Amino acid sequence: MKKKFKTRFPEARIKKIMRLDDDVGKVAKATPVLISKALEMFMKSLIDECTKETRSRNAKKISVVHLKATVLNTDKFDFLREIVEKIQDPINGEEYDEDGGNSGKGKGKGGKKGRPKSSAGQAVNSKGLTKELSSDDIKNEDDFDN
């Protein structure tokens, strides 16, 4: 009897991504399981470090600024530097507020109609609905699409 491993990331999607590379031939059944576990461990490590940064700033929610600071200050995340350097820092040394938005004055709620834009600490899903992100989102298995 084969043991079924429970993974947090969909094995079929991982296998599909692997098949996109022309150099990859057949994929063993264990490979997507191992990659899923490695991805889970990487995400846990990143979120744990980001949580430390958030707490050091006495914030309640993880924001993009905290993620950027974590990547820039932690050697093991150096490979992500090019990506996070594109993230704008708060203007004039302002911090992001608890809701994940810039606490300084800026654009109001008005503007273009249509699909909402995501702000720091939020994600916009395929239906255009905005959702607040927290460290629990990574731990909650039900949030991942299958």
From TrEMBL:
Keywords: Nucleus. GO terms for molecular function: core promoter sequence-specific DNA binding; protein heterodimerization activity; RNA polymerase II general transcription initiation factor activity. This is Transcription factor CBF/NF-Y/archaeal histone domain-containing protein. It is found in: Nucleus. Residues 90-146 are annotated as: Disordered. Residues 129-138 have a biased composition (Basic and acidic residues). The keyword Nucleus applies. Residues 8-70 form the Transcription factor CBF/NF-Y/archaeal histone domain. Residues 106-116 have a biased composition (Basic residues). One of its GO terms (cellular component) is negative cofactor 2 complex. Gene3D superfamilies: Histone, subunit A (1.10.20.10). It holds the Pfam family CBFD_NFYB_HMF. InterPro entries: CBFA_NFYB_domain, Histone-fold, Transcr_DNA_Rep_Reg. Its main location: nucleus. SUPFAM superfamilies: Histone-fold.
